[in-house]
Amino acid sequence: MQKIIFGTDGWRGLLDEEVNLVNIRRVAQAFSMYIKQKTSKGKVAIGFDGRRNSGLFALEFGRVLMANGIETFISQGVVPTPVLSFFTRENACTAGVMITASHNPPEYNGLKFKSANGAPFSTEETAIIESLIDLEQPALSYQNPLQTDFLKPYIKHLEEIIDFKTIRNAGLSVLIDSMGGAGMNLMADISFWNQVYCESIYANPETDFAGRIPEPIEKNLAPLSDELKFGQYSVGFATDGDADRLGVMDEKGRWVNIQEVILYLAGFMVKKYGARGGVVKTSSVTDKVLSLGKNRFPVKVHDVQVGFKYVSEAMIEHHAVFGAEESGGFGFFNHLPERDGIFSAFMFLQMLAESGEKTLSTFLEKKRNEFGLIFYDRIDVHTSKPERHDILPALAERAPKTLGNFSVRSIKNFKSSRGLINGLKFYLEGNPRWLLLRVSETEPMVRIYAEGENPDEVRQLLSEGQRLFE
User: Fold this and answer.
1) Which residues of the chain fall short of a pLDDT of 50?
2) What is the pTM of this model?
3) What is the rounded CA–CA span in Å between residue 381 and residue 354?
4) 375-469 matches 258-340+350-371 in CATH topology
């Protein structure tokens, strides 16, 4: 039997080779055992994206749950992950399961677990399920789970929260690229029903995502950029394979750094809804967010390690108004403590409408004058050397006092689900100026992030990060 190891957000692997019916049943049986440990009357919702075999895996997972006496609901068709999360919370389910590999290439599949509040499972919960795998042989019901409309209550909720009147009166027009993923025509349909002009491209779920990797970052969004250049739009959006992440482009087809998106959304949420329990950001997010608390609004900023489950946990703990990660995931207090690309796009659109600007480029010009420019970059280094996991613990014990031309003011370490240091953030003299080093738990890769006061500083810090790993 292959060993199944969960990462920061669920389990992902190669289709057929790793993610197949046999292994789906093994995970489903362990999950069933966990649910029965929690409650005698478990209730679970299952959703799935448009990848190959996702619907089949969802049915098989559900049949295992039903054989274990767990009440089970399955979506009528492809749905975004946040729709599954919302249904799980609103229907008082014990947990939710989403069959997806998120933004990974089409040859991958996997699953995500959702808690009763719609947030990702905690590290501790995931570890328990992992420990239960193969302790019991999977049972299998001859009946299929009850097919249920997950979309209707989600749409109703969005129409209650989003200020469509303001968006409509602003006369904004939108183009969204669903990247052949689970976002489908959802944003365009909701916009149409609320008299907001929105067109979509690549709206039909495709098993190969129309030849693209379904991650909404600049290098993957040439089709969106081209459509924006020759259209008459105010803003462009893109959602990933399971529609829980968001990418943004201006009306001229130019990519907007996600760090800017985070900064402006954080400021909008605090100004509109109050500081509440503050703002949560991952350590890879620009430290310019800290300026929200110093110069503009009395808000506490909580810095957590990379991974949206850590953002969710902090949002719940502190009753935060907003949470964000560098890879395009945003959580809102009035929606879910979880990523949602569709909801995030509408909130961004509402922010643009309330600003009085007619295009994103004029909005950005105003904001950049207010906050200054953000100088940030990240590099991913592929390496399969086993010793990569030993470098950061060693650096934590004998940390350098300088990096390049800058003194190290302080260091913060982050630990993996197995208690090992897998992240180090060096805070340097200057504002903002930092270097973050991370080792992936599930991929042969190290990631290096840096923010500085100009592009040359960022390049220098990234080079220093590479040198430390080497």
Assistant:
1) none
2) 0.94
3) 41
4) no
